Amino acid sequence: MRMTREKTVVQLTYLPKVFPVNCYLVEEETSLTLIDAALPGNVKAIMQAAEKLGKPITRIVLTHAHDDHVGALDGLKALLPKAEVYISRRDAKLLKGDRSLERGEPAGPIKGGVPTKVLTKPDVLLEDGDRIGSLLAVAAPGHTPGSMAFMDTRNRILIVGDAFQTRAGVAVSGQIKLMFPFPALATWDKRSSLESARRLKDINPSLLAAGHGDMLVQPLGRMEKAIAEAERSLAK
User: Fold this and answer.
1) pLDDT, tens digit, 9 for 90 and up, residues 167-187
2) Kind and range of the H or E element at 233?
């Protein structure tokens, strides 16, 4: 996996030129927090990246429960039995393979690759505003009902899962980029995604780190443009 560092955050990318799948290592003083768990075959590469950084992974934090974000979870947990696993309360249902909607949620099928064979159970169920080390949890429903983003409070780096993509251009989840349409095709509710994108923009991040695509420094202008494009699309 390709390693790219920006301050306290290291992006790990599988197949960066073909079908980029990202996960992230966030450095704390004596440990690492892994955000997302990529694909099943990425266990060794993630462990090797942690070894290069010289710190243990003590937390595994999931932005949402799609296969390309939880694929290596069981393999990592087998090697890191003491690492705590975090996911939103809402997407903990998806992690168990339960696609049912909760009362008050917009109607529409939950799309994408929802895991059906994950054995690992989360240790902590997150709500908006929770803290995980230096990270602030920010609810960002839309791609899935319980999607979350995580902001490093030391530098305002924002790791958003699939709430935005940067591959083939910056887009709000649910808005198709023809050269990389997959996050859009796996999005549950476009209007919720747009609301979440506005909220994430208002955080004024110093850097945008998505599940698919390169990290973007000073991303506000491109986030605003993507939001405007989503607004026009949904107004039709």
Assistant:
1) 999 999 999 999 999 999 999
2) helix 220-235
